[in-house]
Amino acid sequence: MELKDAIRLRRSGARITAEAPDDVQLAQYLALAAHSPDHAALRPWRLVTLRGADRERLGAALVAGFGDEPGSDSARRTAGKATRAPLLLGIVAAIQDHPKVPEWEQVAAVVAMVTTLELVLFDAGWTAMWRSGPGTEMAPVKQLMGVGPSEKILGWLYIGATDPDGRPGPEQDPDLADRITALA
Q1: Could you tell me the CATH number of the domain that includes residue 128?
Q2: Predicted confidence band at 6 (pLDDT cuts at 50, 70, 90)?
Q3: How far apart, in whole angstroms, are the C-alpha atoms of residue 128 and residue 159?
Q4: Is the predicted pLDDT of residue 167 greater than 60, yes or no?
Q5: Under a CB-based contact definition with an 8 Å cutoff, are residues 129 and 12 in contact?
Q6: N or C: which end of the chain has fewer CB within 10 A?
Q7: Rounded to an integer, what distance in angstroms lies between the CA atom of residue 47 and that of residue 90?
Q8: Exposure string (b/e) for 16-30, b if CB count within 10 Å is 16 or more?
Q9: From CA 116, how far away is CA 82, in angstroms rounded?
């Protein structure tokens, strides 16, 4: 597949089957994504894989963070969010002290890497959806994911095989005329 086609066709897949890349495949995809723009090659990120029961532990941490009553419908819905894909990849910005690379630029490098990883996964036949929300700031979730004082959870990449019945169709190229201006 040509890069332009992958960019145009890739969509976040909300309906994901039980298959996911294994750790060896994931490492290969990440090796490609690590070539994304990154001032000073800091690689200001780390990734946390959650499979099987680890997803349930994340669900329990989300329930605790939201203060849901254990066993309630709300708690079941909250916990279920972490099991919507067979593989979750916790995206952690690992901000470093650097005289030339401010925090915002390091976060941009993380975003560039994740965007590239999504395209690499798509090219390999997988789907991925980046999800975030208030869980990224919750103490029980941060503790579970081992988040340090200079780190921030930016969300989770939900990864798996696309349910063929749930694959979104291609979109039209957007009209961007009002987004491009010349210096006045």
Answers
A1: 3.40.109.10
A2: low
A3: 4
A4: no
A5: yes
A6: C
A7: 5
A8: beeebbeeeebeebb
A9: 23
